[in-house]
Amino acid sequence: QVQLQQWGAGLLKPSETLSLTCAVSGGSLSGYYGTWIRQPPGKGLEWIGEINQSGSTTYNPSLRSRVTISLDSSKKQFSLTLRSVTAADTAVYYCAREDSSSSRLDGMDVWGQGTTVTVSS
Amino acid sequence: SYELTQPPSVSVSPGQTASITCSGDGLGHKYVSWSQFKPGQSPVLVIHRDDQRPSGIPERFSGSNSGNTATLTISGTQAMDEADYYCQAWDTSIWVFGGGTKLTVL
Predict the structure, then answer these.
(1) Chain centroid to CA B72
(2) In the beta sheet, which residues pair with residue B64?
(3) A101: which DSSP letter?
(4) Beta strand pairing call for A11-12 and A115-119
């Protein structure tokens, strides 16, 4: 059974950098997008961006200037970096996997457990 | 930017049918997925490609998509189905999510 396990710092100060990592177990990242999604308190989901097995990335335009998603294929891990955080970046962050051959028809088939990140001075 | 609209809440009695809608301009021309969110658990994909159930998802979950509205239907709703449900669709190089619907089984 494929699982995504994610981790990273949960409390940040304004202007700091958010860093989260997601590891795949019981399956592969090959042939999939590694995706990051977040949910601010009391709000809906926001897609942050994705990385494919070749390392090519696509980001939400609203966050593109501050986001980097990277891949370590050997470890079956992908990571999220969000720079210059503010209180507006407080959210539960999820990693997820999407089949890159599905032509955007199928959504994310496996999700991580979520990491609560709070930005506060 | 493209938007998907869901009702904030839906209530259903155990054993009855729950319907959760997701509306967007021309949504019927896109493919919709639905995911279930429960507190303390990893989200679960329950419907993809409008009406397909992933392996392991009970048959009581079904989906449809036509016109401007996609619908997630749960037949014979059980207490364990109480959760938040989100629709999503791909639009112009970005995944768009609905605002989510809290399903209450009472």
Answers:
(1) 5
(2) B71
(3) T
(4) parallel
Please name the residues in contact with B43: beta carbons below 8 A apart, sequence gap of 6 or more: A94, A96, A111, A114, B35, B36, B37, B86
The pLDDT value given to residue A100: 87
**Measured between alpha carbons, how far is B43 from B83 in angstroms, rounded to an integer?**
10
| Whole-angstrom distance, CA of residue B56 vs CA of residue B30 | 25
- Contact list in B for residue A114 (CB cut-off 8 A) is 42-43
In contact, A106 and A99? CB cutoff 8 Å: yes
CB contacts under 8 A, A 30-69 vs B, are 35, 37, 43-47, 58, 60-61
Q: Cα separation of B31 and A120, whole Å?
A: 38
Give A95's contacts (C-beta < 8 A, 6+ positions apart): A4, A6, A20, A22, A34, A35, A36, A37, A78, A80, A111, A112
CA-based nearest residue to A59, from A77, A34, A30: A34
A44:B86 CB<8 A:
yes
Distance between B97 CA and the closest CA of chain A, angstroms: 6
Residue A3: beta bridge partners? A25
Classify residue A118 as exposed, middle or buried by CB count within 10 Å of its CB (0-12, 13-18, 19+).
middle
Q: Residues B34-44: pLDDT tens digits?
A: 999 999 999 99
Nearest to A98 by CA among A20, A16, A4: A4
Instruction: Read off the pLDDT of each residue in B46-63 and give the average, rounded to a whole number.
Output: 97
- pLDDT of residue A13 exceeding 90: yes
Residue B51 predicted with pLDDT over 90: yes
